[in-house]
Design brief:
single chain; about 325 residues; alpha+beta; Dbl Homology Domain, Chain A; 2 domains; 9 helices; about 15% strand; elongated; phosphoprotein; zinc ion binding; cytoplasm; FGD2 protein
């Protein structure tokens, strides 16, 4: 008799989980443990750096090796009298939020491996030595480290497939659908963590270009648009190059610094978005101009094109 489709997928989940636990064992019990030992004994690399590279891999490994894999194994052995995995995956799902930290740290970890491989030949040698072992299957540390990043999307795909192949009357249908929904939420949580980290990094880079002025640095701000602009001076009918940063709550009117020491721009004026009015001006001498009037000041500005003016106004 042919195995039912859903059982084949459940078995694939079990097999990939076994392989995954072996990979986690390699990362935590071999790479991390041996590099940590080296850091404690010698002066090759600070212990802190090793911890930063491997993030919370130990917790992830313990969870899969001691809890999830044994539960799955037990369930597959009993499949003939209890053909279901939905409830087991529901127990797993909340713990997958642990991955947020690991995934968020991944780019930084890879960067640290590169930096310290150049800085510390013994560090590089130890990694190369472990990579030569049979257990590494000719793959680099970075390649093995990518596996946890890809694991949650893999669960999602397998479970989607499992739910699709379940017969309508299956006793596992409700649990499996609920489990899929939970896995989907965790994947979203992990992606949101990455997006938030990128937003903060980009925001910090902007603040550095502005010289980290106290009253401007706020992690909740959102940069909407930035770019060069011409300021029109009514007094002598001329224009001068300025630079604008538009945030959700303020417009920063800046002057590019000639000498970039520390900052790229000097903030000349801050206009609150609250109560600000913007309108196009029909000026024959200066095309593509618009007027910004706020509580603090009114500015007459010229964009490089009609299209650019429209995006600023919008």
């Amino acid at each position: 008799m042919q195995e039912p489709e859903e059982k084949k997928i459940a078995l694939e989940l079990l097999e990939t989980e076994q392989a995954y636990v072996n990979r986690l064992h390699l990362l935590d019990q071999i790479f991390y443990t041996e590099l940590m030992k080296e850091a404690k004994n010698g002066k090759t690399i600070p212990e802190e750096v090793v911890k930063m590279i491997f993030s919370n891999i130990s917790s992830i490994y313990q969870f899969h090796a001691k809890f999830f894999l044994p539960e799955l194994q037990k369930r597959m052995e009993d499949w003939s009298c209890n053909p279901r995995i939905g409830d087991v995956i529901q127990k797993l799902a909340p713990f997958l939020k642990m991955y947020g930290e690991y995934v968020k740290n991944f780019d930084k970890a890879v960067e640290l491996i590169t930096i310290w491989s150049e800085k510390s030949p013994p560090f590089q040698e130890l990694i190369a030595d472990i990579q030569k072992r049979k257990v590494c299957a000719n793959l680099t540390l970075q390649h093995h480290m990518l596996e946890p990043v890809q694991r949650i999307p893999r669960y999602e795909l397998l479970l989607k497939d499992y739910v699709r192949k379940l017969p309508p009357e299956s006793p596992d249908r409700d649990d499996a659908e609920k489990a899929l929904e939970m896995i989907f939420m965790v994947a979203k949580h992990s992606n949101a963590a990455i997006a938030e980290m990128e937003r903060l990094q980009n925001l910090w880079a902007v603040y550095q270009r502005l010289g980290l002025e106290d009253d401007i640095v706020d992690p909740s701000n959102e940069l909407i648009k930035e770019g060069p602009i011409q300021k029109i001076s009514a007094r002598n009918n001329s224009t001068s190059e300025k630079y604008l940063f538009l945030f959700n709550n303020m417009l920063l009117y800046c002057v590019p610094k000639v000498i970039h020491v520390g900052a790229e721009f000097q903030v000349h004026l801050r206009i609150d978005v609250d109560g600000m009015k913007v309108r196009e001006l029909n000026d024959t001498q200066f095309p593509h101009t618009f007027l910004i009037s706020g509580k603090q000041r009114t500015l007459e500005l010229q964009a490089r094109s009609g299209e650019e003016m429209n995006t600023w106004i919008k």
